[in-house]
Amino acid sequence: MDWNALDLDRLAKVMALAASSEDGEALAALRRARVILGKAGGSFASVATALRTKDAPVPTDGLTEAMMERVRRTEGRIRTLEQENEMLRRQFDEAVRYIIEVERKLSFLKVTGGRSDGSDEG
Q1: Closest by alpha carbon to 47, among 62, 32, 31, 59?
Q2: Could you give the CA distance from residue 114 to residue 122 in angstroms, rounded to a whole number?
Q3: Per-domain boundaries in the chain
Q4: Degrees (nearest 5) of the Cα angle 9, 14, 19?
Q5: Element spanning 113, H or E
């Protein structure tokens, strides 16, 4: 079996469907899994044997590289979200300051009866 040729992500998704409570869906998923394994020169039996064997070939190259690519994308997304979060935090702080200022002006107008100069003309 050529572990590097095996599409582990696709196989994992198909095997998840094999757990379906719908018999037809589960059977179709197992058949798709058999095709995926076959394209890599393997079978369910070869996977079971590899899992039992301590010296089983572990598909580290493709798997590790795929995982590292996901980590890089995730780190980039985290940086973007942190920047967006900081921008939103600044906008929130600015909005709070604005609300405080408006409330202060409203309080002043209530105290002065709507007169902005504080005089008691009437």
Answers
A1: 59
A2: 12
A3: 3-85
A4: 130
A5: none
Q: Yes or no: say if 41 and 7 are a contact pair by the CB < 8 Å rule.
A: no
**Which pLDDT score, from 0 to 100, does residue 67 have?**
73
Contact between residue 5 and residue 39 where contact means Cβ atoms under 8 Å apart: yes
Average pLDDT, the chain: 83
The closest of 69, 63, 10 to 39, measured between CA atoms, is 10
The vertex-13 CA angle with 64 and 19, nearest 5°, equals: 130
**Terminal Cα-to-Cα distance of the chain (whole angstroms):** 97
pLDDT digits (tens, 9 = 90+) for 35-80: 998 998 888 888 888 777 755 555 555 667 777 777 888 888 999 9
